[in-house]
């Protein structure tokens, strides 16, 4: 039922953590839409949760959103809803989560764009739906910027990111990961996404992000 999607999440064929969350939660709905009984639905759900946590353990957003749906499902079961009603309620909850995520991305993009001036050169890495929204807002505001994107090996998500940014009309240069320190002297700002942000401010993201942060700190890039 869900093997293809879980495999895509595990192998980062779905680059964005936000997109991975929405795809995963869509599976929650499908479990109950296709289950022949409540017992079967719950059994399949537990298997799905275990697999998702195993393949994307660093995605705090995924874990938090699954917890949210699991709490909702627990309440539905306690109140006596059947499989069909649970599926309908989950679909409404998923739509609500989708709206919340889109709103949060919009706020982040707006706040980030305020810190950008025309003529800035910005460096980013990997593939982030939030970072894409940020650049989209920059373009909407008529700010002329240049972008460097690292390849982000071994997955190469940066290649897909660079293509998206180029399609927006931004002057985009794809660079190898090891060239970050060389190009940093030309960079005004660094913008990256995150799988998670810890309470102490630590950022969990694609391998190579810490190297970018160190190079930016050395060059005094904000």
In short:
With 222 residues, the protein is of the alpha/beta class.
Reconstruct the topology from this structure:
Layout: H1 3-10, H2 17-34, H3 38-55, H4 60-78, H5 83-114, E1 121-124, H6 129-140, E2 146-150, H7 157-167, E3 171-175, H8 180-183, E4 189-190, E5 196-197, E6 203-204, H9 209-219
Parallel strand pairs: 1-2, 1-4, 2-3
Antiparallel strand pairs: 5-6
Could you please describe the fold and organization of this structure?
The chain is of the alpha/beta class. It has two domains: 3-106, Up-down Bundle (Four Helix Bundle (Hemerythrin (Met), subunit A)); 115-219, Rossmann fold (3-Layer(aba) Sandwich). It is 60% helix and 9% strand. It has nine helices and six strands; from the N terminus they run αααααβαβαβαβββα. The N and C termini lie far apart (45 Å).
Key features of this structure:
single chain, 222 residues, alpha/beta, Four Helix Bundle (Hemerythrin (Met), subunit A), Rossmann fold, 2 domains, four-stranded parallel β-sheet, two-stranded antiparallel sheet, 6 strands
Q: Report strand order across the widest sheet.
A: 3-2-1-4
Mean pLDDT: 92
Structural domain count: 2
- Whole-number radius of gyration? 20 Å
Proportion of residues in β-strands? 5-15%
Taken in chain order, the helices and strands follow as HHHHHEHEHEHEEEH
Shape: elongated
Q: Considering DSSP H and I runs of 4 or more, what fraction of the residues is helical?
A: 55-70%
- Alpha-carbon distance between the two ends: 45 Å
Largest sheet: 4 strands, parallel
The number of helices is 9
**How would you name the CATH homologous superfamily of the largest domain?**
Translation initiation factor eif-2b, domain 2
By DSSP, the count of extended strands is 6
**Structural class, please?**
alpha/beta
């Amino acid at each position: 039922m869900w093997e293809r999607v879980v495999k895509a999440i595990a192998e980062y064929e779905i680059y964005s953590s936000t997109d991975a969350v929405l795809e995963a939660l869509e599976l929650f709905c499908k479990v109950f839409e296709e289950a022949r009984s409540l017992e079967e639905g719950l059994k399949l759900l537990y298997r799905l949760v275990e697999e998702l946590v195993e393949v994307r353990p660093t995605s705090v957003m995924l874990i938090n959103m699954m917890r949210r749906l699991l709490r909702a499902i627990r309440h539905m079961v306690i109140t006596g809803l059947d499989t069909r009603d649970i599926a309908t309620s989950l679909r409404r909850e998923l739509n609500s989560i989708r709206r919340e995520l889109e709103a949060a991305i919009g706020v982040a993009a707006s706040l980030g764009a305020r810190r950008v001036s025309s003529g800035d050169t910005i460096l980013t890495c990997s593939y982030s739906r939030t970072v894409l929204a940020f650049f989209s807002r920059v373009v909407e505001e008529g700010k002329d910027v240049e972008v460097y994107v690292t390849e982000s090996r071994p997955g190469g998500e940066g290649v897909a990111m660079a293509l998206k940014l180029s399609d927006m009309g931004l002057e985009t240069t794809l660079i190898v990961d090891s060239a970050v320190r060389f190009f940093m002297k030309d960079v005004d700002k660094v913008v990256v996404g995150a799988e998670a942000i810890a309470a102490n401010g630590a950022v969990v993201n694609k391998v190579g992000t810490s190297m970018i942060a160190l190079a930016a700190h050395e060059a005094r890039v904000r």
